[in-house]
Structures are given as structure tokens and as C-alpha cells.
Amino acid sequence: MEASTAPRFLTDPYLDWTAGEGIPVIEDFGVDLLAVETAPWARLGAHGAFVHLKGRGDFIDVVVVEIPPGGSTEPQRHLYEEVVYVLSGTGSTTIESADGSRTHSFEWGPKSLFALPLNARYRHFNASGSEPARFASTTSLPIMMNLVHSEDFVFDHSGSFPERLGDDRFFTGEGEFIKMRPGRHMWETNFVPDLATFELQHWSARGAGGSNMMFVLADGTMHAHISEMPVGTYKKGHRHGADFHVYAVTGNGYSLLWYEGDEEFRRVDWRHGVVYAPPDMMFHQHFNTSPEPARYLAVAMGGLRYPFTTDKRKTFMGMDVSVRDGGRQIEYEHQDPRIHQLYIDELARRGLTARMDAVLGSGA
């Protein structure tokens, strides 16, 4: 049978589309995005690569973009959401509403975070004449492409969503603090200049002096949050559905991952540039092994304002509730005893000391 007349069966329009873009497609459990090989991408006028993590789920992907020194991307717009985390380099982005009535420009650098409002026209510029600029975009392209399976609809639609641009100050690094309760406080904006210095809110229920902030970006359905672990500490084990992409921001450390009943842990070591996504309902736990506070960014589909799925709603309701009470967190007193000893041994190799007595007791 001719290929062109073969019946369509179990097709994935998104994967078919990525295969035709002519840039690398990387698949792995965890990836160092600073080391990903990119290739010229005609659509964008820059270099790019797709990164598909084992736990990415059905809704989102990661796109690595590198802009050469003094270069810029071609103007773009699209009917999917995009959350950008800057890995290296400096530059600027210009965003214009679909109807042309509003234009905003802002400058970014390493560890900046920003969102591209739905179907707004935009263009990225590298501010350096000698160094490339590289960023990672977490996007909802997979769900949109698989839903409508039409490239023209996704990339050449005239729809306007002016409410997604929000307040003008959201493009200047300012925002609005929305007070909820620990672990659910939100910062609404479109642009965070530096995630390494952004002020966080204490969240004791997650353990060991940790802090965080949830983001509402461009009034989107995409979720993002930043969390910090103090020196010598680690977070409580937890689990949720697929698609939370975890980006290391400051410090270094490792995460252990396991399914309920597993005898062994899977380990991912991380530092700035590394991303991984825990697979569906796989327990995971984050450990700071650096002499400075460690921060990480998590990006997913469905947030506190628009959870999108029932499972995401359950995650946000139960993320600091013990699994023994129907939640999704393992309390310190219930964790596998090996976990703490592994951490103590790891810190000892680095000449560091754990600071977990306040939550585990002096006999820890």
C-alpha cells in the first residue's frame, strides 16, 4: 500500500510535526540544557532543539533556543502558551498585542523568567556581540497540536487575547502579590528579572525551613513556582501527576525518585541548567548539597488559578498533606530511614553538615 494512502492509525500530530522541523529531538530522564546540541531552525531564525523528558506527560514540552551573538529570532506568534527560563546570555524581548495596540520590551539575563502572552507577536534579541544567548521554553504546544492537528491554526491564527498581556507593569519586573496561605501565595506578573534573588514566602509544612512562591504568568494555564532549600536541608518526599518540569536555579544537589514499593531509588544530580520531570505519581525528594541555599523552578500545565485537570487540583490541595491522610506528601517521620543517612554521607563527602535537627530531632 502506498504510504500516502495508508490509513491514519495511532498518529501523534505533535511528534510528526517536530520530526519535520529539522532540529534535534532529545529524549531522556534528565537533561543538561546547557550542553544540548542545537541546530539551525528555519522557523525561528535561530538554533533550537526539542527536549522530551520521560515524565513530561501529554501536554507540554521543552524547547531549547540559542541566539547567536548579535542575532535575533524571526517574529513569531502562536496559539500555545510558553514559559521561558533564561539559561545563559543577555538580551531583550519585544511583545506586541495581536491587534497592534500595545507594545512592550524588556531586558533579560541568566535566571530570568517570563511568559509569552497567548498569540501575541514577539521577537527575541541577543544583546551581546560576542556570546550566544540560550533559554529553555516550556510550552503547551503538544496538546494544541494534537488537539487541532493544524500547523496553520497554531502558528497563523488571527485571534486576539488582550487580557493575557495584563497590567503594563507586569513587563517591568513588577507584579502583584496575591496572599493565600503558605505554599499557595501567588505573584502575578509576566516577567521576573532574576529568580535567584526573588523574594519568597516561608512554607514550613514542606519542611526544614523551606520557602516558595507560585506564579501566575500572563494569566495563563501554564503553572510555575520557585522553591528554596536552606543549606544542609532537604524537602519532604511527595508525588503528583506527570509534567512538572524541574529546573535547577541556584546551588546544587540531587533528587531521589521511586515508585511506591520500589526497593531502590533513582537519583538525578542537578545544578543550574539541568531539568528533569518526575513521571506520573513517582515519589521524589530534593536535597541541597551546596554551601548556599538551593533553588529550583517547576513548570507544568495547570496552575492555582486554572488547574486544568482534576489531578492538578488534587495536587495543589494535597501537596503538603500526608499520604496517610489522603494527601501527596511523606512526612519526615514516615520516610525510608535510608534517605537521611544517604544525605548525611553525601554532605560528609563535601565537608558539609546537615541542619535537620529542628525537624528530625537531635538524634537524627
Automatic annotation (TrEMBL):
<protein>
    <submittedName>
        <fullName>Cupin domain-containing protein</fullName>
    </submittedName>
</protein>
<dbReference type="Pfam" id="PF07883">
    <property type="entry name" value="Cupin_2"/>
</dbReference>
<dbReference type="InterPro" id="IPR014710">
    <property type="entry name" value="RmlC-like_jellyroll"/>
</dbReference>
<dbReference type="InterPro" id="IPR011051">
    <property type="entry name" value="RmlC_Cupin_sf"/>
</dbReference>
<dbReference type="InterPro" id="IPR013096">
    <property type="entry name" value="Cupin_2"/>
</dbReference>
<feature type="domain" description="Cupin type-2">
    <location>
        <begin position="64"/>
        <end position="135"/>
    </location>
</feature>
